[in-house]
Amino acid sequence: MELQVTDIRLYVYCPREIYFNYCMPVNRKRTWKMQYGNEAHAELERLQKRRNLSAYGFDEGQKIFHRLLYSRRLGLSGKLDMIIETDRGVYPVEFKNSSRTSLRFHKYQLMAYGLLLEDLCGKPVRKGFLHFIPEDKVVPVIFTDNIRLYTKRIIDDIREIAMTQKFPKKTHHKRRCVDCEYRKYCADVL
Questions:
Q1: What is the pTM of this model?
Q2: Is residue 63 a contact partner of residue 97, using CB atoms and an 8 Å limit?
């Protein structure tokens, strides 16, 4: 069963999003946050094409935008916002239209892109970057063994939800439900 890298962020935010995507597909309501996020991504990409790599700590390197990545071994695919290739290695970069307080949701998604790049390049990827659009801040994420293992566990958990079709527990953070596109389908949060 092939999963999408974005499933990892969704799972960390609320496992029920996985259930509704894979087990009980419903018409999703496109939120204003989604539209705004797409527009902000496009603008940052336009600017990134002209900028150097100093914000990421590199003097030289190549930027590759919107690369589709796939690993048969992991059963995982996704489109990465940007890859930086330097003589020191390859680094995944994700643009996020949120604040750095949401780092937890995004670092595991970034790690999954790192795993995909490892399969593609055949060498370890030790670090990636989250570029937070509202603050125009770049946050390096070191891919520790713990982040690596937890990301793989999330992938297994997502597969289990999809295959068993067991309805997961709700998120512990009720305020996440306010803008959720699946809110009307969760009977215990209405």
A1: 0.88
A2: no
